Amino acid sequence: MRLSDERDFTKKCLHNSNFDLYSAPASGGILKNCLLYAAWIDKLTGLTDRLEKNFKNLDEFYEELIEQHLDPNKPKSIEGDLLDILLQLKKEKSTSIDLTLEDIKAILMNVLLAGSDTSAAAIIWAMTTLIKNPKVMKKVQEEIRRSVGKKDGILNEDDIQNLPYFKAVIKESFRLYPSVPLLIPRESMEKSTLEGYEIQTGTIIHVNAWAIARDPEIWENPEKFIPERFLNNNIDFKGQDFEFIPFGAGRRGCPGIALGVASMELASSNLLYAFDWELPRGMKKEDINTDAKRGLTTHKKNDLCLRIIYRFMQTILLCGSRTSIVSQLNSLLSARTMFSCLMSFVF
């Protein structure tokens, strides 16, 4: 489902919203849970004020966006986007709850901050691991192009179901670089004992998905990128296999698994289908820095810079952060408007 096909939506949203600032509390959240009065540090450093200002700006942006969609003189798209559907549900009162504009703004914020940002990070990590492993890159591109053939348009979900190696590549990328390394904090509802440790009621528990996915007792050569480990087994994203939980598990698992996986697979498969990718001249794969920034979402510490070769066009240098990349791709792919819409959603 599209969030919006309006160019100014993503551009304005990404420039007006400081994703890194929204993620900042994650690195200090553990400290505040351990030290009862440590919250004053955020106030002293000005982080609290900056967060409140950013959230106010984001709230005003959603207000403006909703007003645009409610404007009777605004041309309506044939399919309608996510916001159109939410406003229609509110108007028809066809949900089990009374959907308010505040509810709609909250949903949009979840899609933007919990969906788009994490998907963008996941795609960048996937491209990073592939460019560092050219044999895997070549193999997965051959599978995609052999299966799909010369197609006029973009790959869809039906095409992806016939790409087992590509799916294994995506899983392996998520294993090495889960979008949310500590998952969402949990709180114990009652006193219990686990492995000899007494856990009191109300204890905040952080699940380290990053460490679990790199545990040498579970994974052979855990630091290596080996997609083949996911072939011929039933390990999936649903949280039933506790050695692989990039989206969490149980009733508190990520409710956006389907959306997250679909956006990741659709964007990545089309990037690999339509383009060839190379490092900038003079750069070696060993030069690629894979350090991650601290925060709620696992983003690369340094920008990913690649030479992009459209199969029917000239070579172009693609470099920058997730914000600048979407701008460059939108300009590059003006002849492929449907692809621009997809890129606007995930970057």
- What is the total domain count? 1
Distance between the termini: 15 Å
* SSE pattern, N- to C-terminal: HHHHHHHHHEEEEHHEEEHH
Write down how many β-strands occur, each being a DSSP E stretch of 2 or more residues: 7
- Supply the number of helical segments: 13
Share of β-strand residues: 5-15%
What is the CA-based Rg, rounded? 21 Å
Question: What sort of overall outline do the alpha carbons produce when their principal axes are compared?
Answer: globular
CATH third-level topology: Cytochrome p450
Please, what is the CATH homologous superfamily? Cytochrome P450
| Poorly predicted runs | 1-19, 24-31, 325-347
- What share of the residues lie within helices? 40-55%
CATH class reads Mainly Alpha
Strand order of the largest sheet: 5-6-7
Using the 3D structure, state the CATH architecture: Orthogonal Bundle
Indicate the structural class.
mainly alpha
Q: The biggest beta sheet, please?
A: 3 strands, antiparallel
Mean pLDDT: 79
Protein name: Cytochrome
Keywords: Heme, Iron, Membrane, Metal-binding, Monooxygenase, Oxidoreductase, Transmembrane, Transmembrane helix
Membrane topology: Single-pass membrane protein
InterPro entries: Cyt_P450, Cyt_P450_CS, Cyt_P450_E_grp-I, Cyt_P450_sf
